[in-house]
Amino acid sequence: MTRLAAGLRGPLNAPREITAGVTLAALAIPLNIGYAQIAGLPPVAGLYAAIAPMLVFALFCSSRQLVASPDAPIAALIASLLVAIAARPGSPQYVELAYAQALVCAVVFLLFYAFKLGFLANFLSEPVLVGFIAGLAVEILTSQVKKILGIGTTAERFFPELWEIVTKLPQAHPWSVVVGVATMAVIIALRRYAPALPGPLIALVAATAVVAWAGLDRHGVSVLGHVPSGLPVPHWPSITLGQWAALIPGALAICAVTLADGLLTARRYAEQHGYRLDADTELRAFGLANVAGGLTQSMTVGSSASRTAAMDATGSRSQLPSVVCALVVAVLVAFCSGVLAYLPNTALAGIVAVAVVRLIDAGKLAELWRLRRSEFWIAVVCLLGVPVLGSLTAVVIAFLLSAVDVVRRASRPGTATLRPGEHGRYVRGPVQGPLVVYRFESRLFFANAGTFKSEITRLAEAGARWIVLDAEAITDVDTTGAAALRETIAALRERGVTLVVARATSGLRRLLDHYGLTGLTYYDSNEAAAAAHRESDHG
């Protein structure tokens, strides 16, 4: 309990935290079942994810609000990754692979923790994350729409499948549609008019009661069916060594999403409530949680931004709600699992559909379009790539596009040309006279070395005889940049042009000396350009 209350300001408000835990259980039960279905796993795999993994994460994390659980992106990734290994969803081999996936993810998380790689969350670009999660949401919505309509499809690719759904709309099962749409309407209404109530649970209980009372299961409305009772028992996945290796790329993708989404969410709440978050500790907690999950027949767990927000809204300031939730779900699966058999699948699909629609951040996409078109197109490529090419291929392509975009922008750094003006001041403008100050506002490296050479050469060709390089913003020079600088100096000397460096840091001087550029003249003060001007007058 000391860890759960560590660093809290004032005493722990146990009644409030326990109430929040019951609310969390009310959210987790229907959503975890729905996400297990998305992942192609039995419902109990989602329920088990709310017991041992959630409890372990609560005990070992440093965040007071972050909730560890299956979520839509994780479920969609599991489904797409395991199907790619040629396993049929729901088959015994598929389920064993899912348990093993949790253990492989645990190893990756723990390796990230061991090598202190929590900082990598800062390097996952927002457009990639926005597009990737939106693409997963589109993929999930497609599968849930089929359940709500009560139809099946045979197409294996995304757009053909969409067309098949459209052509089969007349074949939709009326009662399935009514139950699914009504479930969605109840959740949306409660979210708007009574946000404190657990909308998904209320909607699911109501839908189950209606289906049971009207006997709709005998009229084609699919229900969940038998759910095994009893607490999870230790289990080691029975798969081959080659299958273990095949799970590694998928584990990296799952961990990358959790690393970005989970750590950024945890950091936001830590900053909001004024406590310190240790990103590496969170990685260890995710690793240990997935060890517990993989060994207790649970699906992989990541972070849930929606449930974290719900806990924060209740006023929770510790991980005690996760402990309470784990206990409530444990009691449910141990003694009351029979009631789950009557849950209508179309209602579960409606609950998941409402949850994942919020993952398509249209506002953020519009903002990217308005602020930086290149990043908008990266997000769009990732969004479309997930359902069309597969999640792993899409995220690799998006990362490559992000890297290309970074290099493209770095190859055109901010530069400025200053010339002597009135009263000894220097103003922006073209070369007028023998002296010019050239400001280069980036590190000098392979991507922009050509720009540096061409712009300095252009200044010399325009008549400058003294070029003062303002190096204040040059934080680093790689070997290509050093070669460009050496070649530029040699070319300027042939033209009779002198290059001096102003405002270079001591670190930059040492680096340039290391590259053998010891013939440069350095100036430390802001008067470097004026000094060069005086020398040019004497010359």
TrEMBL record:
Protein name: Sulfate permease
Residues passing through the membrane, by range: 20-38, 44-62, 74-91, 97-115, 127-145, 172-190, 197-216, 236-260, 320-342, 348-369, 376-401
Statement: the UniProt record of this protein carries the keyword Chloroplast: no
Residue ranges annotated for the STAS domain, each copy included: 435-517
Keyword entries, A-Z: Membrane, Transmembrane, Transmembrane helix
A biological process from GO: transmembrane transport
Gene3D superfamilies: STAS domain
CC per GO annotation: membrane
Annotated membrane topology: Multi-pass membrane protein
Localisation: Membrane
Pfam families: STAS, Sulfate_transp
